Amino acid sequence: MTLEFQAQKRTDQLKQALNYQFLEENISQKIYKNLDEKQIWQTATRGLAQILKVNHCQIELYDSHKTTAKVVYEYSTTLSLEQGVVRKTDDFPELYKQLLNMQLVQFGEIIPLFGSQPHQMTRLACPIYKEQDILGNLWLIRPKDKIFQEWEIQLVKQVANQCANAFYQTKFYQQARKQIRELEELNQQKDNFLKAISHELRGHATSIQLAAQTLENLLEGEIGTKKNKVLPKVFNIFQRSCQRQTQLVNDLLTLCHIDSYQKALLPKFIDLSTWIPQLVEPFIERVYIQQQKLKVDIAANIPPLKIDALTLERIVVELINNACKYTPQRETIDISVKKIKDMIHISVSNTGVQIPVSEQKRIFEQFYRLPDNDFWTVGGTGLGLNLVQKLTQVLGGSIQLKSKDKKTTFTLLIPVK
To answer: Which helix (H) or strand (E) holds 126?
Structure first.
C-alpha cells in the first residue's frame, strides 16, 4: 500500500467523520426543536431516509407490556405503507429478543418478514431506549446488496438516542403543561371562591354594623343617662371587631380584583407635610396606651405628590398598624418622609424588633405570618403586607424592607410625577 493511497484513505475517513458529525448534529437539532411526539418521529425518519438514501424508514413503539409493537410513523418512497400496523413480539421471538435486550440487528431477507411485498432487502433495526427503559425500534430498509456501513449504523444509533431523549423531554413538557393548567384551574377556583365569600361576608358585616348602631341608639333612648358604664365599652369592642372584619373583607376583595384596581385610581395632588400628620393622629392614643413612642419627621423640600390618596392611605395605615402591633413597650415608631432625586421615600420603622434574614424574603407572601409570633397575641391573617406590596406596585412604586440591629424599616418609594 503506497503512502499516497494511505493518505487518500485517511483523508476520506476524515471527510466521512466530519460529514457524519454534521449529519448527526443537523438531525439532532431538528429533533430537539420539536416538543410534539409526532414531529420527533417525522423528523427522525425523514432525515435518516433522505441522508442514507433508504427506501423505507419507520418507528415502532412497544405497549406497556412489550407484547406488541405499533408502527407510529414511517417515511417511504417505494414500499406499501405500514403505519398503524401492530406486530406481536411473540410472532418473531428471536428478532425481538435481541431488540428488547437493546441490541441492534441487521439482516437480509427474501421472504417478506412483516407481510410486505416480496423483495430482496436489507433491514436494520435499532432499539430506541434511555437507560434501561426501551421505547421501541427505528427500522430502515434498503436493497439487499447495499448493507449499512459502520458510520451509517453509528448515525442511526445517535438519532435513536436523540429520539429517546426528545421523547422523554416531550413527555416531561406535556406533564408540566398539564400540571400548570390544573394549577391555573385551581387558582381560578380559589379566586372565584374568595370573591364569592368576600362579597357575602361584606354584606353580613355591613348588616352587623348597622344593627349595632341601631341597638346603641335604641338603648341610648331607653336608658338615657342611667345606662351602665360598662355598656359603652362593650359596644366599643363590638364596633372595633366589626370594623376589623370589614377591613379584612375589603382586603380580600382588593386582592381578588387587584388586576383591575388600577383602572379605578383617582390621582390628585396631596401635601404630605399635612396629610401624614392627619393620618398618624388616630394612632396617638393607641401608642400612648401601649406605652410606645411615636415620632414623625417630614423633610422641608417635599413637593406636592400626585397620587390616589385612598390607596396610599391604605398602604401607610397598614404599615403603621403593623408597627403598633409588633413594637414592644418603651420602643419607638418612626415615620419619616424625604425626597431623594425623583423619588419620595415614606418610611415606617420600629425599634425593638428584628425579622430574621431567612424570613425576610417571604414577608410579602400572601397569608404568610412570622412563625415565632403568637397568633392569639398579635392576630392577623398574613394579608396585610402582601396587599401593601401589590397596592404599591399599582401606584407605580416599590417597597423595601430593612431589618437589623433590633430595628425594622419598611420604605415606600413613590416616583414624583
So the answer is: strand 121-130
Instruction: Identify the bridge partners of residue 410 per DSSP, sorted by sequence position.
Output: 348, 401
Q: How far is CA 336 from the centre of its chain?
A: 37
Can you tell me whether residue 110 is helix, strand or coil? coil
Residue 276 maps to a domain: yes
Answer with the residue of higher pLDDT: 127 or 264.
127
pLDDT at 254 over 60: yes
Cβ proximity of 387 and 254 under 8 Å: yes
Over residues 361-388, mean pLDDT:
68
C-alpha triplet 195, 199, 200: angle, nearest 5°: 115
Polymer length in residues for the chain: 417
Query: Which amino acid would we find at residue 15?
Result: K
For residue 351, what pLDDT is reported? 94
Count of the separate structural domains present in the chain: 3
pLDDT tens-digit map of 280-311: 999 999 999 999 999 999 999 899 999 999 99
- Helices 230-256, 384-394: crossing angle, 10 deg rounding: 50
Main-chain phi, psi angles of 87, to 5 degrees: -110, 140
Are residues 39 and 168 located together in one domain of the fold? yes
Closest CA to 53 of 77, 73, 72, 30: 77
Identify the domain containing residue 190 by its residue range: 179-261
pLDDT of residue 378: 47
d(CA 285, CA 319): 17
Distance between CA atoms of 261 and 257, rounded to whole angstroms? 6
Same domain, 198 and 171: no
Where is average pLDDT lowest: 17-26, 166-175, 176-185, 188-197? 17-26
3-state secondary structure labels for all residues of 359-372? HHCCCCCCCCCCCC
> What is the structure's pLDDT at 132?
85
Contacts of 214 (CB under 8 A, 6+ apart): none
> Does 258 score more than 90 pLDDT?
no
> What 3-state class would DSSP assign to 57?
strand
